[in-house]
Design a protein that fits this description.
Shape: globular
Radius of gyration: 20 Å
Number of helices: 11
Distance between the termini: 38 Å
């Protein structure tokens, strides 16, 4: 859902918090957490970047994909790159295996889960890496409107069905030559099991996106918001949501707070911390990286 908003904004939060520094910001966030009954965590790419998965990290890109690095590519943002299918699927397999299927706990996401604690909560995120579900958040409480790297879909699409990506990617990785960046066995390249056509990760890149697997979580989120007990105090904790896809997280969260009596917004964003002026003291701008801020909150809480 895209929400248009031309409301004047301000980057100055209540009590001059940016000038007061990180400890004061952490105290303010802890105060907001202590005051709320329900939490909606709303996360963008900045959260995963702070957790160690920065799509713009050229050094990590070179480590993972040296052949593409030698071609002059420097970033995981490759949707428009003119690569042959064997190199493109080599990229997707390595990238998704790294960012979606890692088994190690992520400290930042675990820290966020601990701070949410036993409060009634839900999550909405533009991230497609499943890091919430892999780090202690219940999967049925997490809405991923942009999709999930854990599934593939037909690009036509010939069907509304989607398929787990892991088996497809395992075949690609078994035939992947790291030195050339190519998949050496054409039979390992994924195709649609139904029509034999091209497949793609089940993420939103255009009107062909199949959202059927993700819509039920969105419906549950809408019901949760609508079923709030009388007088319940909602905190929208938005982390790392900028202007790449503002209609997915950033603007809808402002709209939600604006139209929910008593709701408050905390925006954690080092690059785009501004908040709507009309929300006044109901919106708190914290211009810090999520890892630094949550580390400090955890230290104060502990």
């Amino acid at each position: 859902m895209t929400v248009q908003n031309d409301t004047p904004r301000t980057a100055v939060p209540p009590a001059g918090l940016p000038a007061a520094g990180l400890p004061a910001a952490a105290e303010a966030l802890r105060g907001r957490l202590d005051e709320c009954d329900r939490i909606l965590v709303a996360a963008g790419a900045g959260l995963s970047a702070a957790a160690g998965y920065d799509y713009g990290d050229a050094e990590r890109f070179g480590e993972l994909l040296p052949a593409l690095h030698r071609l002059g590519l420097r970033s995981r943002y490759l949707l428009g790159a003119p690569l042959p299918a064997d190199m493109m699927w080599g990229y997707w397999a390595v990238h998704i295996d790294d960012i979606r299927f890692g088994t190690r706990p992520n400290p930042l996401y675990r820290r966020l889960r601990a701070l949410v604690g036993d409060r009634d909560h839900r999550v909405t995120t533009s991230n497609v890496d499943a890091l919430f579900a892999r780090n202690g958040f219940e999967p049925d409480r997490v809405f991923t409107p942009q999709g999930d790297y854990g599934r593939l879909q037909c690009t036509v699409p010939c069907t509304r069905e989607t398929w787990p990506s892991r088996p497809f990617l395992d075949r690609v990785l078994a035939a992947y030559d790291r030195d050339t960046g190519r998949v050496t066995d054409p039979a390992a390249l994924p195709v649609c099991p139904r029509c034999g056509g091209d497949v793609f990760p089940n993420v939103r890149v255009g009107p062909e996106f199949v959202d059927d697997a993700h819509r039920p979580a969105g419906d549950r989120l809408v019901r949760w918001l609508g079923d709030a007990p009388a007088g319940a105090r909602l905190l929208v904790l938005e982390i790392g949501a900028g202007f790449h896809t503002p209609g997915v997280i950033r603007l809808p969260m402002e709209h939600l707070v604006r139209h929910t009596p008593g709701a408050r917004l905390v925006r954690v964003n080092p690059d785009h911390p501004d908040v709507p002026a009309d929300l006044a003291d109901r919106a708190l701008s914290l211009p810090y990286r999520a890892d630094l801020l949550l580390d400090t909150v955890t230290a104060l809480t502990g």
